[in-house]
């Protein structure tokens, strides 16, 4: 007699908690062949705004943590993902209808991306900042700092888990907090990733994951006055120019859509930072 | 005892005007396109001296056809000349320009003060020397782009459209042109409508430098000309310095075009004075922070946040120092406060100051004689300003300081950051650990500790939040005109085989 399985309820991840959508809405997630997998939460405008509130509240603590600490937290994510490797492989096999070896490669690449970005946390400032030899008796130093709250449309095609990791990691390593809209058609690994995040010392609110329709939710984030930057990585198939126009009202930094999954890069890290230059007088001795 | 003889007024100086004989102005100026002055096809306008309201010269207006001509000259120069030159040769042209600016420094300073209204001591000692320094600094970058931090062989963007403001006309031109050319771009630049004069003299310098035709095109006109320029389909980069409202409009208009954008917009900088500050220096810093260039400075320290325990002492000393400021002829070497740049700007300063009073703040202006002609505004401070008052939130862009108080460093930081802007800030304290902690928490792109309004070509300048994006100055300013050719990063292997 086969054992009756215990399916998981897939929910949102906001402020370190796992709420259902306040709207009570769900949408059906199926395999490529249409076999039912789960009812994912269909996030609403209110959920997006709640996520921004949570993200803003987390900025001070996360950006104020030491770079060494943030690096260790990102590495911890890799450790826990490694521990749940089989679970993610199985989930990707069923939700993306890919082979076990393809799913394994995707999970391994995602783990390695966390490790790669973890190492940047205490180095990107050295590479992107510098001392400035001004002509006068002044100490003068330029350093990048996190931009603040970043709203992200995760890649909507290709590898759902790797796509998500490839946009979250470069944003949070510097101290930003994020509200990310997962791959609409393959949201399950995003919800499972949030379970990893919740147990790997990432403070609540640093990463907030919404499942649902990017076309419906992103406009509210693009026009939200408490969002500092908008990463449109996965927005290629929606009306992203309108989103960029809406973002201009508060002069948000906007990263344009990319095809597929963005490759790991220092540029992606630096694009979500602000350079601060501090001058200080030197005494004449 | 005879009491009829008036005592000489404190620091009463005899007039010491700088001679205008160094100028060789033409009665009218055309557009500088493809290396030559040509007629504009819009209605010409006049540029006046804001100190006397006298006409200086007639200036051409570029219409859309002229903008087209300028952009195609820049494109041609990019394709055929500038992109084919070695970095070393590009650098040599920039070095030449730097030297020519130094050689004609006094002429440029006099023209700037005449056209803009700023005191000659500022145009002579700050603006023009920095212009030369900016070209000298970026000249050296032209053959060292591999070291700019973008990986090997970074690429120029192409044609840059640049629109600059009236507060530092020639300096803003240098901030825009020097890095653009060093990186290998060609340029179409539009100076502000009220201050085109030094840009047109600069065009003569480009001719003296024998810069290849079309590499820099200078077109004059009002907002419409600028709009046509930034919306032109054949440009690759937009660099704008000016108001947040216009910056916002530009950010909208370039959405979806892929044009790279740098925006240097407004500010409402907090100048924070702690009770352990060196008070004499702090008072000088407050004065410099808000009255430098008549307060026509996007990074001006327009919100004074002073610790409550020293508020009265600081205000007393500030008023006493303000009473010694000399307002008047911009060309006089003793002048501290020159003319407001335009009637329009004067009206705005008056309007916001009246709002400040109406909203309950206490107004105090330095006693000074206001000339009969021209546009003038006496140095003014407002005390008892509430955080919600418009004069604490909006950029006045004039010699008007709003004073607020705080009790703790945390309150100072909260008040300083309580603005959609984030361009600059000042911190005054003798305690280094406090300065560094506060500097960490301020959301602003440039922070001056125990100094204010310092600029240098090697030092990146630019804002957080609604003060814009991108940096000008330093290695960061160069990167704003370059595109990475991609890093040969081992990380690339991570996504090897990833499905697209």
In short:
The complex is a heterodimer of chains A (285) and B (500). By secondary structure, chain A is α/β, with parallel strands linked by helices.
Describe this entry's structure for a reader.
The complex is a heterodimer of chains A (285) and B (500). Chain A is an alpha/beta fold and 285 residues long. Helices cover 43% and strands 18% of the residues of chain A. Chain A contains ten helices and ten strands. Chain A has helices at residues 45-64, 67-83, 85-96, 100-120, 124-128, 160-172, 188-198, 214-222, 240-248, 266-271, and strands at 26-30, 36-41, 130-131, 138-146, 149-153, 177-181, 207-210, 229-231, 253-255, 273-281. Chain A has a five-stranded parallel β-sheet, with helices on both faces. In chain A, strand 5, helix 6 (160-172) and strand 6 (177-181) form a beta-alpha-beta unit. Chain A is globular. The mean pLDDT of chain A is 97. Chain B is of the alpha/beta class and 500 residues long. Helices cover 36% and strands 16% of the residues of chain B. Chain B is built from 15 helices and 20 strands. Chain B has helices at 64-80, 87-103, 105-116, 120-141, 169-182, 197-208, 223-230, 244-253, 279-291, 311-322, 343-358, 390-393, 409-417, 432-441, 474-479; strands at 28-29, 31-33, 36-38, 45-48, 55-59, 155-156, 159-163, 186-190, 216-218, 237-241, 260-264, 270-273, 303-307, 362-365, 380-383, 400-406, 424-428, 446-449, 468-469, 482-483. In chain B, strands 14-15-16-13-12-17-18 form a seven-stranded mixed β-sheet, sandwiched between helices. A six-stranded mixed β-sheet of chain B has the order 9-8-7-10-11-19, with helices on both faces. In chain B, strand 2 and strand 3 (36-38) form a beta hairpin. In chain B, helix 4 runs parallel beside helix 5 and helix 9 packs across helix 10. The longest helix of chain B is centred in the N-terminal third of the chain and has 22 residues, at 120-141. Chains A and B meet through helix 4, strand 4, helix 9 and strand 10 of A and helix 8, strand 18, strand 19 and helix 15 of B.
